[in-house]
């Protein structure tokens, strides 16, 4: 329950999960389309009905990219354009002292491999909560085959288990005792950023995305990104310029192997990506745009209060 006497405006991300709650309030609210709401839950008619009501009642609807905005317009063609606000997700990173190599060498299966070959691991990190839409197992067979040819190659999956059934029936059987694959449960944000910074590259294998924060974080840190070629990723990754996009495991391995053999491409990709996030995903721009939306809401609230006050007759001013 919300104590509406002490709150003036609600802001929530995900049109279904927080939207279902906000639409029952009498308060004005701003809903942020997160990704799974518009990409996945919109396929279910009941969920879409709820989100339609949420969008209709919202003061503003925030979209991270033009891709999401276009999808919103396709789902809700009657939505007022003035209600839609395009605000790219900002990114900030903070790298801790977490030592990835020390952690990896503490794992018996990794330690035995590295001790026998005397070579430093080449780590590709996949960051994100473990749930079906993230499809964290998509590249596991590919990495197993690559690792069999080159023992340095490791796929490191980092993220908390968010879907118990999926994890027990799909993810854990795919990961357990698989050569070349290491899983680390969720870590503090700063440690996750440290893992990114010490990885050769960051990988995304999601079936769908709104705007993948892990991709933006990797760009900000200066690590190349290999991302699945889906609309949400295409909105922030320009193939061959700020990162690499792939359509299949085979294309992934071709581009990943090429990257390990081309230092110049590595430097160019990370340089371009850093410039991109600093230009289009900086905190100050994001802050200003959200403040502007909140100020519009406050202005409407004050205008409504003034209108009500004017409609209340002053004592002694009642005509017979």
TrEMBL record:
Keyword set, alphabetical order: Glycosyltransferase, Transferase
Any single Pfam family the record assigns to this protein: Glycos_transf_1
Gene Ontology molecular function: any one: glycosyltransferase activity
Signal peptide: none
SUPFAM superfamilies hit by this protein: UDP-Glycosyltransferase/glycogen phosphorylase
Domain Glycosyl transferase family positions: 119-275
Superkingdom of source: Eukaryota
Matches recorded under InterPro entries: Glyco_trans_1, Glycosyltransferase_G1
PANTHER family: GLYCOSYLTRANSFERASE 1 DOMAIN-CONTAINING PROTEIN 1, PTHR46660
Protein name, UniProt field: Glycosyltransferase 1 domain-containing protein 1-like isoform X3
Species name: Biomphalaria glabrata
Lineage: Eukaryota, Metazoa, Spiralia, Lophotrochozoa, Mollusca
GN (gene name): LOC106051551
């Amino acid at each position: 329950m919300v104590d509406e006497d002490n709150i003036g405006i609600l802001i929530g991300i995900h049109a279904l999960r927080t939207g279902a709650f906000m639409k029952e309030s009498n308060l004005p609210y701003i809903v942020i389309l997160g990704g799974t709401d518009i990409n996945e839950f919109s396929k279910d008619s009941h969920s879409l009905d709820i989100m339609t009501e949420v969008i209709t009642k919202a003061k503003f609807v925030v979209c991270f990219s033009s891709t999401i905005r276009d999808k919103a317009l396709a789902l809700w063609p009657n939505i007022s354009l003035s209600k839609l606000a395009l605000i790219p997700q900002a990114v900030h990173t903070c790298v801790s002292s977490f030592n990835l190599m020390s952690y990896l060498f503490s794992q018996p299966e990794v330690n035995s491999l590295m001790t026998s070959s005397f070579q430093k691991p080449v780590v590709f990190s996949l960051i994100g909560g473990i749930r079906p839409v993230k499809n964290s197992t998509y590249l596991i067979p590919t990495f197993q085959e690559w690792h069999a040819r080159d023992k340095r190659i490791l796929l490191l999956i980092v993220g908390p288990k968010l879907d118990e059934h999926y994890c027990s029936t799909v993810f854990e059987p795919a990961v357990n005792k698989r050569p070349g694959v290491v899983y680390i449960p969720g870590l503090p944000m700063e440690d996750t950023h440290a893992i990114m910074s010490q990885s050769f590259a960051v990988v995304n294998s999601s079936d769908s995305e709104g705007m993948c924060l892990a991709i933006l974080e990797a760009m900000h840190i200066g690590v190349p990104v290999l991302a699945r070629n889906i609309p949400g990723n295409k909105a922030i990754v320009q193939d061959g310029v700020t990162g690499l996009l792939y359509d299949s495991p085979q294309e992934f391995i071709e581009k990943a192997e090429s990257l390990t053999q081309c230092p110049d491409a590595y430097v160019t990709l990370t340089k371009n990506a850093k410039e991109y996030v600093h230009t289009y995903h900086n905190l100050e721009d994001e802050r200003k745009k959200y403040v502007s939306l909140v100020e519009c809401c406050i202005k409407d609230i004050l205008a409504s209060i003034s209108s009500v006050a004017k409609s209340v007759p002053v004592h002694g001013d009642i005509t017979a």
